[in-house]
Write a structure and sequence with these properties.
single chain; 6% strand; alpha+beta; 7 helices
């Protein structure tokens, strides 16, 4: 088994944080995104979509997409549960992870991909207007999260979950686009400080 990682990129980091929370260590190989190694023939043979992370199992099966990889390890190592326990909690974790992906992670990524000069080779064409259009979407969802986190410790309830991993990494990723959480969002800042203090956050 080997995990093809991507350094500071947010999706590979999601898997690393998840594995750290589980206490799982597996062999990894770095894919240098800056050098466009993901577009090499060797890596394309592993993942034709040329994206990281990618998990290659001992039988040669390849699992891509960060949440799919996390679900694989959740099934193998169910404790601690990061996708919820029981029907209701599992559904709430799924709901909040999807919300964090669609309304925070994706818009923040679009800001970076369409406005940052370093992404010119990877995002063609860059559409500046689309990058700018996603900034208020990010801020609107941050305000929504702040209101929700007034009522509980973590996104999906009182237990840390994969939804918190997704949202934390999305907020951390905002920095490369010079976007920050407004000081007025005290509940969100409290939550972010708490999840960032977990040892797994440095993975």
């Amino acid at each position: 088994m080997k995990l093809y990682d991507g350094g500071r990129a947010p999706n590979p980091r999601r898997v690393r944080v998840f594995l750290a929370e589980k206490g799982i260590t597996i062999p990894t190989e770095q894919v240098d995104l800056g050098a466009l190694q993901q577009k090499s023939s060797a890596f394309t043979a592993i993942n034709p979509m040329q994206r990281v992370p990618a998990l290659v199992l001992d039988d040669g099966t390849v699992i891509t997409e960060s949440i799919a990889i996390c679900r694989y390890f959740e099934a193998l190592h169910p404790e601690p549960p990061l996708f919820g326990r029981g029907a209701l909690q599992s559904a709430l974790v799924e709901m909040w992870n999807r919300r964090a992906e669609l309304h925070l992670f994706l818009p923040a990524s679009n800001v970076f991909r369409h406005l940052h000069p370093a992404m010119k080779e990877m995002e063609s064409p860059q559409v500046k207007e689309w990058g700018e259009a996603n900034k208020p979407r990010v801020m609107s969802f941050l305000e929504f999260l702040d209101g929700e986190l007034k009522q509980r410790s973590f996104l999906a309830g009182e237990d840390y979950s994969v939804a918190d991993i997704t949202a934390m990494i999305a907020i951390d990723f905002m920095r490369v686009s010079r976007m920050v959480v407004p000081d007025a969002l005290v509940n969100l800042k409290r939550w972010h400080a708490a999840v960032s203090a977990r040892p797994s956050a440095s993975a």
